[in-house]
Amino acid sequence: MTNLHLTRPIAFIDVETTGLNTQQDRIIDISVMKMHPDGHQESLNFIINPGIPISVESTRIHGITDADVAGKPTFQEFASKIFDFIQDCDLGGFGISKFDLFVLESEFKRAGIDYSRGGKQILDVQSIYHKLEPRDLSAAYMKYCNKPLEVAHRAQVDVKATIDILESQLKLHKDLPHDIVGLNVKKFLN
User: Fold this and answer.
1) pLDDT tier at 179 (50, 70, 90 boundaries)?
2) Which of 147, 186, 145 is nearest to 169 (CA)?
3) Are 59 and 65 in contact (CB under 8 A)?
C-alpha cells in the first residue's frame, strides 16, 4: 500500500462470528493482514472452533457451518499468536470500531489475555466511507431526487422525502420488488 503513510505497523482485521452479540458470540474465522512502514506484509488466517453453535442467521451471512469448524482448534489455541502479531500495531478494518474489536477483546478476555487497544490508532474504513458518502435522509434525497432536502428534520417534510426516495428507487432499480412483502426490512438487513 503506497498511499498510506505508516510510522508503525497497522493490522487490518476481519472476523466472522457465531452471532452478533459482541460479549457472548465467538469468532469462527479471523484474518489479520499486517502492513509494515517499509511496505512488507504478513498475514494470519484461522478457522476456529467456537465451542458453541453458529446461528442460522450468521451462517446465512458468511456461509460457515458447524460442520466447517468441527475439529478445528479453539480461539484459546491461537490467542497468544494473534495477540503477539497485533501487539505493536495500530488497527484497521471495515466496521472494526463497532464490532470486530469488541468481539476480539471478549475472546482475549475468555482466553485469559489482558488485551487493550489503548495507545493504538483505530482506522475504520466504514466510518471514512460514511463520512465521505453520508447515509442520511438528506443524502438519499439528493442521490435519488437530485435536489437538496429543504427544512430536513421536520416530520412532514421527512415523510414526503421518504416517499419520493422510494418512488425514485423503484424507478431506478428495476430488480427491486414492488410490493411490501418483497421490500420488508428483514430482507435488507442481511
Assistant:
1) confident
2) 145
3) yes
Q: pLDDT digit string (tens) for 159-169?
A: 889 899 989 99
- pTM, whole model, 2 decimals? 0.80
Q: Which amino acid is at 106?
A: S
Please tell me the distance from the alpha carbon of residue 42 to that of residue 11, in angstroms, as a whole number.
Answer: 9
How confident is the model over 61-82, as a mean pLDDT? 97
Which position has the grid cell 432536502?
A: 149
Whole-angstrom distance, CA of residue 76 vs CA of residue 84 = 13
In angstroms, the Cα distances linking 61 to 16, 18, 57, 169 are 9, 10, 7, 24
Residue 110: alpha-carbon gap to chain centroid: 22
Name which of 122, 96, 90 is nearest 30 in CA terms: 96
Cell of 70: 468441527
Question: What percent of the chain is predicted at pLDDT more than 70?
Answer: 96
Question: b/e for 99-115, b at 16 or more Cβ within 10 A?
Answer: bbbebbbbbbeebeeeb
- Residues 62, 54 contacting (CB under 8 angstroms): no
pLDDT of residue 82: 98
Sign of the four-CA dihedral 5, 120, 113, 73: negative
β 10-17/90-93 pair status: parallel
Q: Which residue has the cell 474465522?
A: 29
C-alpha cell at 84: 503477539
Residue whose C-alpha cell is 498475514: 43
